[in-house]
Amino acid sequence: MNSYIMSRANFVATIRSLSEEPNKLSEDEETELYAYITDNPTKLDDVEFFLKLCGTNNAKLLYLKELSKSSEREREREREREREREKERREREGREREREERERGERERERLTLQELLQTVLPAPETLSIKTKSTINAATRKVPNKPVLAWNDFLTEAFDSAKGIDTNKRIYSRPNVTDEELLSVEDSVVDLFLETMNATNNQRLTRLSTPESWIKRYAFRDIKGQPDVIRCGAVKVLLLKNASLLLSVVEIKTEQLMRTLVDDRTELFNAYNIALTAKDDGTTAYTRHQEIIRIVRQLFGYMVVNDLKYGLLTTYIRTWFFYCKDDNSDNIYISPTVHINQSHTGNSASFLECMYYFENISTTNPTLHFTPLNIDGDDNDDDNDDSEDKNDKDKGDKYKDKDGKDRDKDSDKDDEYQASSSKRTLGVITRNQSKKRKVKLNDNEFLNSMKNYKRNQFSFGDVLGNGRSGIIFMAKLHEQVGVLKMVDLYKKEYLLQEILNEIKIYLGPLKEIQGIYIPKLLKYGVLHEAFAFLLTSFAGESFADIRNITEKEKQLAIDGLLAIHAKGVKHGDIRLENIVMERNELTGHSNVRWIDFAWSEMIKNSKNLDKELSELKRLLCVC
Q: What residues make up the domain containing 493?
């Protein structure tokens, strides 16, 4: 860099020393020379070398003048090259514009009207062979012997609805749905269903004044139960992932499973009604009949508990549309089977046109209206008469509450379960694996003894959180207000086992400390023959949400766990989220209680209880 500066300085000095010569450089020549050495710094040494070879000033001037001319010619050539490059750039941009306009025109020609979109025939994918299993293998419950009804006019109404579909506006993309997909487990069916809806019907739904979409259940915060897919709405497209309106629910099963239950020659509503009358002969056929009942009741439960008139059951390859009326929410209407590759003909609607009709009617009037029931015990349709068990109860059982007053151990006698005299056990989970068969048997007996409550006996309040079993709500049942946890009867076996275990823990070993160290069990039972539930008293916020926990409050949590251990129960899930507290700001008094006994078990080994206590102390940072 320094050598360049020196060479440039020498070059400038040489030009200035020649400024008095008669044949001196013109201003333009000097400008060209300065531009030359600026653009070509590596040639400065060569220029300096040639200047030294020139014997006279005149020779130097002649050399510099020639150099300035070559610089001017080079700069002109560069300008010419730049003009050529600019010309090529303009020509390239012109060709690009022409190509984009041509492609835009082609795309416009490829755009579909709504009618063309909905008359697209979708391919039926292949299914992989998988091992199918029952929706639920554990505790089972008898359902009401009430047949479903055929929604016979669904296909006709869908076809008539298709006549009014727009045939002019070409605004929809051609769906890219191939026949290369392979369906295996249930998750693959969920994914393909949503992909197909995004490529087809969601194109229309998202353009509505109140946008809608087929989407996974997590988009609607207040969803009750665990349907695989929902259709929801929002004020803006961007808010669909946090939707404010629930329109319909979808339950998805694999075609491999449904094929073993309902063949193409049988309609689902007929298969269900036949299943209701089947006798328990211990055969595979009876098991399949029960599976059909559970699948139908599962979807129907999602509809009713979410106050919805409409739902659909699908394997992707086959779909059945569900509907229930306001006047009797126990009546289920099921459409004939609609196949994914069903095409539009002169007298039938395509699959997507059926979806279009279903979307329209469930948008117009999605909500199922109930007449509230507010009288405790008004449950005349309860199929499980537990009056014999109720007569066996110890009505004199009392315990001391936190204020030292005598209280009934369970004010809700109609909800208390006791097995027959030959089996006085609630089947609480133990570590003894030899008792597994007995526990499962007791689960069946316990579940069948539980009272069924109708949807109109509940009032749902605010969402409190989201647990393993689903959304936790504040709820009111027969004037009892508390925290509601519910689990599908027919979805995930382990969750059903857990909630049954929790109810038994409340009713059995921990009954005497309800309202003291644990919440009060207010109600438990079955909701609309679709969900097992328990309703407990509200006990405050969790330790996980409270920052300034005092040492006294930590000790209350320890005392609570010790009280649980004193009953021979291991909690099984020591987390801050499972310790809740209510503070009285006026008195400064705090009530600390333990919740969530899904994993709790009766245990005799005191070392395991001590280990759990140590785990709590570490969590609370208590020595």
A: 396-620
